[in-house]
From TrEMBL:
Membrane-spanning intervals of the chain: 25-45, 57-76
Subcellular location: Membrane
Organism: Karstenula rhodostoma CBS 690.94
Pfam families tied to this protein: Romo1
Name this protein carries in UniProt: Mitochondrial genome maintenance protein Mgr2
Keywords, alphabetical: Membrane, Transmembrane, Transmembrane helix
InterPro entries the UniProt entry points to: Romo1/Mgr2 (IPR018450)
Major location (coarse): membrane
The UniProt record lists the keyword Transmembrane: yes
GO cellular component, one term: TIM23 mitochondrial import inner membrane translocase complex
Family: Belongs to the MGR2 family.
Length: 116
């Protein structure tokens, strides 16, 4: 999972929105190629290659599936990583350094006499 932009110390910045879009498209395209190969090969074995031949039919399945998966994965990745101010504030609160309380605010410890 990518690191949120404001979470890195020293003024470093995370990937831009365009980088996230490209990354989602590449991941979706890769998954789509594999799924297209599996479904295309299965359909060619079951129903035959048709008039276009085996390679062209398989390629059409793979390219169509890769384009569809890539498109939706790119949009989903961009939307998912676009954080709201409330989420960014909660993330900052969780990851801040712990505050050490002075002795007067710590819980009193029970002495041995109070237990009996």
């Amino acid at each position: 999972m990518p690191v949120p932009v404001g979470a890195m110390p020293g003024g470093q910045h995370g990937p831009s929105t365009l980088d996230k879009l490209k990354m989602g498209g590449m991941m979706g395209g890769s998954v789509g190629l594999i799924i297209g190969f599996i479904f295309g090969f299965t359909n060619i074995v079951r129903f035959g290659p048709g008039p276009n031949g085996m390679l062209r039919t398989l390629g059409q399945y793979m390219v169509g599936s890769a384009a569809t998966f890539g498109f939706f994965m790119a949009i989903g990745t961009t939307i998912r990583t676009d954080s709201s101010p409330i989420a960014a504030e909660a993330f900052a609160k969780i990851n801040r350094r712990p505050m050490i309380l002075p002795r007067q605010y710590q819980y009193p410890q029970a002495s041995h006499e109070e237990k009996n």
